[in-house]
């Protein structure tokens, strides 16, 4: 044995929220799925807008451009990236259940809730820290491509800064919401299905309803509410930007709260 | 010190642990025995708070496990080994657990060396053999230098060298004054390692005694004796009320009398004895005897199947 034995007093440390955060940070970066998913999210967030803008730009003369919103191609990548973020958010929790790691985690932190707060907090911060530069690059690249047709927005255009930064905030909230979903469902396939259902299946399903019902309900669905922050204008079918975003945050906190109840009450 | 009082756990209709009360004391190795499905693993999960008891309570050093500020310093546990993320290396697995409690990296390295995982520490845990997985689990259990060590089938998958190492480790930990609680199916190993036994069957406590008492209580009073004057000896012993079964090589298996009685009777009658041995049940026989009625998953006797 090479190492000098550690004095016993240093092994008596308490479990603190900060230490659990540190542990969850290490957990996030020591499995391959994280690196892959985040890489994909960044590539999609930046790549799609550049591609879309280039295509639009090169075919500019062929199409009518009334009602064209330069912000759409800029932020389309982040909307697709939410798939990668959402799946990773579910996995951050459900992979522990599927591998049995949850037993080790809850043995080290038997109070349980600090683990949930740490997972949600770390993942949300990482998502925002990566996605904010990504959407900024996406915005400036796409607008630079579109500017040759004078169909671009400057950063100072009303609402643009809020929309672009809001796109990154939106993804951070997706991160929290899906960690909550993963904690409630505790199963990877089920968690991803629930995430997909809420964000990608429920909205189109609303179109089956009578228009008045559709218009009454749709703006309040999680995805639509969250996306209010990336709209420049709103009409009767969308909520005001910060109102919608606040509702979206409310959904995420609800998912976390339900997850907390499940985590505390169920056997590991 | 682990104290269980009236511990009960139901999974729906099934009662896995039934009114279990016992103490596991420091300074000795306590073996936890029971047939498959008797509730050993469930009991250990209840100690750690991974499952919530339906009734009763269990404390570690006076408090429920979850209330200790540094849980890994109170109890180091190895439950079913695969509680590890398969995509993470062994070293990183130990690190993430250590970080929750502020245990330094040097301690992680110390344990990696101690359990012999130095060469594979950066390998993904999913690629580990059973033995390597066990060693990692043991490293995790010892991470916080715990007062109490609780291991579920620790020698599962270890080679003889590993089994011997564990035995030495457990006895060493007990000698340091720690509480050592080990469940096992390997009777021969348990008889070498444990000082005290807690035996359960179908979730209920069957025995809570020292190993010696356990074996003695189960030993039928059998004596093996060999004499050149076998028939004369048989006559004397039958007169004492003993039952004789003739074994190979002139050996007699005598029931109902003690070795002392045989020796004195032979001497009183001038008979020579070449061999006189009291038969002590092995731990395995004692265990099988005691738990025969309490098997959760019993096997048909060979003759029944024929």
Q: In what order do the strands lie side by side in the largest sheet of chain B?
A: 5-6-7-3-8-9
- Low-confidence regions of chain B: 301-306
The first-to-last residue Cα distance of chain B is 49 Å
Mean pLDDT of chain A: 91
The biggest beta sheet of chain B reads: 6 strands, mixed
Q: Please outline the major beta sheet of chain A.
A: none
CATH topology of the largest domain in chain B: Rossmann fold
Overview of the structural elements:
The complex is a heterodimer of chains A (268) and B (306). In chain A, helix 1 crosses helix 5, helix 5 runs antiparallel to helix 6 (160-185) and helix 6 (160-185) packs across helix 7. Chain A contains ten helices and no strands. Chain A has helices spanning 17-29, 32-58, 71-99, 101-108, 113-146, 160-185, 188-205, 211-217, 222-227, 241-265. The model of chain A has no long low-confidence stretch (mean pLDDT 91). Chain B has 306 residues and is an alpha/beta fold. Chain B has two domains: 2-210, 3-Layer(aba) Sandwich (Rossmann fold), CATH 3.40.50.300; 220-279, Alpha-Beta Plaits (2-Layer Sandwich). Chain B is 36% helix and 25% strand. Chain B contains twelve helices and 13 strands. In chain B, helix 4 (105-114) crosses helix 5 and helix 8 (211-218) packs across helix 11. Chain B starts with a strand and ends with a helix. The chains are: A mainly alpha (268), B alpha/beta (306). The A-B interface holds A 1-6, 8, 10-16, 19-20, 22-23, 26-27, 30-33, 95-96, 99-111, 265, 267-268 and B 45, 48-52, 65-66, 69-73, 77, 79-80, 82-89, 92-93, 95-97, 99-104, 106-107, 109-110, 113-114, 140, 144-145.
SSE arrangement:
The complex is a heterodimer of chains A (268) and B (306).
Chain A: H1 17-29, H2 32-58, H3 71-99, H4 101-108, H5 113-146, H6 160-185, H7 188-205, H8 211-217, H9 222-227, H10 241-265
Helix pairs in contact in A: 1-5, 2-3, 2-5, 3-4, 3-5, 3-6, 3-7, 5-6, 5-10, 6-7, 6-10
Chain B: E1 2-11, E2 14-24, E3 29-33, H1 40-48, E4 55-60, H2 71-74, E5 75-78, H3 90-100, H4 105-114, H5 130-142, E6 148-152, H6 160-175, E7 179-183, H7 187-193, E8 196-201, E9 204-210, H8 211-218, E10 222-226, H9 230-239, E11 243-246, E12 251-255, H10 259-268, E13 275-279, H11 283-291, H12 302-305
Parallel strand pairs in B: 3-7, 3-8, 5-6, 6-7
Antiparallel strand pairs in B: 1-2, 1-4, 8-9, 10-12, 10-13, 11-12
């Amino acid at each position: 044995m090479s190492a000098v034995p550690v004095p016993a007093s240093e092994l008596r440390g308490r479990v603190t929220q900060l230490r659990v955060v540190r542990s969850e940070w290490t957990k996030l970066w020591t499995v391959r799925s994280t690196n892959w998913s985040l890489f994909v999210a960044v590539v999609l967030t930046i790549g799609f807008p550049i591609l879309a803008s280039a295509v639009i730009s090169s075919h500019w003369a062929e199409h009518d451009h009334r009602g064209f919103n330069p912000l759409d191609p800029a932020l389309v990548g982040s909307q697709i990236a939410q798939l990668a973020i959402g799946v990773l958010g579910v996995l951050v929790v459900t992979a522990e259940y599927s591998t049995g790691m949850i037993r080790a985690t809850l043995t080290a932190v038997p109070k349980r809730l600090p683990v949930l707060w740490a997972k949600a907090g770390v993942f949300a911060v990482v998502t925002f820290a990566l996605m904010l530069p990504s959407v900024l690059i996406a915005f400036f690249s796409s607008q630079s491509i579109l500017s040759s047709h004078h169909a671009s927005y400057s950063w100072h255009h009303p609402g643009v800064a809020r929309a672009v930064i809001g796109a990154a905030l939106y993804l951070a909230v997706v991160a929290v919401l899906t960690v909550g979903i993963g904690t409630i469902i505790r199963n990877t396939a089920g968690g991803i299905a629930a995430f997909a259902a809420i964000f990608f299946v429920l909205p189109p399903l609303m179109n089956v309803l009578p228009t008045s019902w559709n218009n009454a309900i749709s703006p309040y669905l999680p995805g639509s509410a969250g996306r209010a922050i990336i709209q420049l204008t709103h009409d009767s079918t969308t909520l005001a930007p910060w109102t919608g975003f606040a509702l979206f945050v409310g959904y995420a906190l609800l998912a976390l709260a339900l997850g907390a109840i499940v985590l505390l009450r169920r056997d590991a | 010190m682990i104290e269980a009082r009236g511990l009960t756990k139901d999974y729906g209709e099934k009662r896995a642990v039934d009114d279990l009360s016992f103490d596991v004391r420091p300074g000795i190795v306590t073996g936890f025995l029971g047939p498959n499905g008797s509730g050993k693993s469930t009991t250990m999960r209840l100690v750690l708070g991974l499952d919530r008891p339906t009734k009763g309570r269990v404390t570690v050093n006076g408090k429920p496990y979850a209330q200790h500020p540094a849980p890994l310093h109170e109890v180091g546990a190895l439950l079913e080994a695969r509680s590890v993320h398969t995509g993470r290396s062994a070293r990183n697995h130990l690190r993430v657990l250590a970080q929750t409690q502020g245990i330094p990296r040097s301690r992680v390295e110390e344990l990696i060396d101690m359990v012999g995982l130095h060469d594979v520490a950066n390998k993904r845990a999913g690629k580990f053999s059973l033995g390597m997985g066990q060693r990692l689990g043991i490293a995790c259990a010892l991470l916080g230098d715990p007062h109490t060590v609780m291991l579920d089938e620790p020698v599962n998958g270890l080679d003889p060298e590993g089994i011997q190492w564990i035995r030495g480790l457990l006895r060493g930990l007990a000698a340091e004054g720690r509480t050592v609680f080990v469940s096992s199916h390997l009777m021969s190993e348990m008889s070498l390692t444990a000082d005290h036994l807690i035996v359960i069957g179908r979730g209920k406590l069957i025995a809570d005694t020292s190993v010696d008492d356990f074996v003695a209580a189960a030993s039928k009073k059998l004596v093996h004796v060999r004499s050149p004057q076998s028939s004369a000896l048989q006559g004397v012993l039958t007169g004492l009320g003993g039952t004789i079964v003739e074994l190979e090589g002139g050996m007699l298996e005598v029931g109902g009398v003690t070795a002392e009685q045989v020796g004195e009777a032979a001497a009183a009658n001038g008979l020579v004895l070449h061999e006189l041995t009291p038969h002590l049940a092995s731990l395995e026989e004692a265990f099988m005897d005691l738990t025969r009625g309490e098997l959760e998953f019993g096997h048909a006797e060979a003759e029944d199947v024929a």
